[in-house]
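Lab notebook, bench 4. We co-purified these components, and the gel suggests they stay together. Before we commit to crystallization screens, I want a quick structural picture of the whole thing.
Request: model the full complex, all chains together.
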Amino acid sequence: MRELQDRILKEGKYLGGGILKVDSFINHQVDPVLMNHCGLEFARRFKDLGATKVLTAEISGIAPALTTALHLQVPVVYARKQKPITMPDQVYLTLTPSHTKGRTVELIVSPEYLAGGEKVLIIDDFLATGATIQGLVRLAQAAGANVVGIGALIEKTFEGGRGVLSYLGVPIESLAIITAMEGDQIYFQEGA
Amino acid sequence: MRELQDRILKEGKYLGGGILKVDSFINHQVDPVLMNHCGLEFARRFKDLGATKVLTAEISGIAPALTTALHLQVPVVYARKQKPITMPDQVYLTLTPSHTKGRTVELIVSPEYLAGGEKVLIIDDFLATGATIQGLVRLAQAAGANVVGIGALIEKTFEGGRGVLSYLGVPIESLAIITAMEGDQIYFQEGA
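Here is the predicted assembly.
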């Protein structure tokens, strides 16, 4: 998606260690117009899957998941990293390593909002190692739901997440695909 | 706002202790169509303030803040509760008590995205004691920005937040105003 790729080139900063800073339009400040366009594009690419729910992980997945869900006209559930007091005692919980936090985090979904037979579209900001998305897949499977597609705003191919998730046999769509980062240079796979 | 009030009556659950559970459409599962309508309504009410930025707190403020920012066509910044590795060492940080977490949490904003002279519209899911919103006000003031308005999806008048924030002299708008909760009953102030 040209608009996202151009924005990454303009404002993204490679911090080393595989970390791309996109805090000015995705991860701290959010450009709602860009997010809406990304949601529209995800909805277009996934429109034939019959998704009944969008699933993401707090925090940075919420914006693109919300706009995707808006255009697909289905609810979005964001997995919590801490169990709020409003959640029942019995929950779906999985552990996942957080690349940017340097530790293991919990992902928690209430059985109230993820049911057997649902068709789940997973949307997140990054597809890197695929660890967070695999955690979301495990939560969906624990609920007896079917994952029908996976979408990420930005994929870093060199971290191998797409290969890790390929066993699912579902469409994986990324709106910007980064093949390498080096110094000030960010290299994209064309046609994403 | 009738649509939000009706949804609270239909799906909201009073858990006691002043806690209203709205996890099926705001705080865990989100109805994106409803959130979009709420954002449109905030944008309508605040359209003459000249806001240059929407400010909220992760996590539950993100959805209504994003849709409001979309309709106002300005960026949204969500204050982080943990400093990510992409953030500079020098930040604006304030402490605020969390009612639902039972402890003090940090609210952190990078100076990169909140500048002196900006006109800040604060949007959050709840206006209860006003503590979180006061934390956001302190962050804006630390940056030399001006708070021009405050919006909440749901206000609980009996926790007094509106009075606490009145010294700011800015418009405070809530889309559903709850005056009391008792057993299965939720009482609204009409005309919100």
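The first strand of chain A starts at residue 13 and ends at 14. Worth comparing against the SEC data before the next meeting. The mean pLDDT of chain A is 96.
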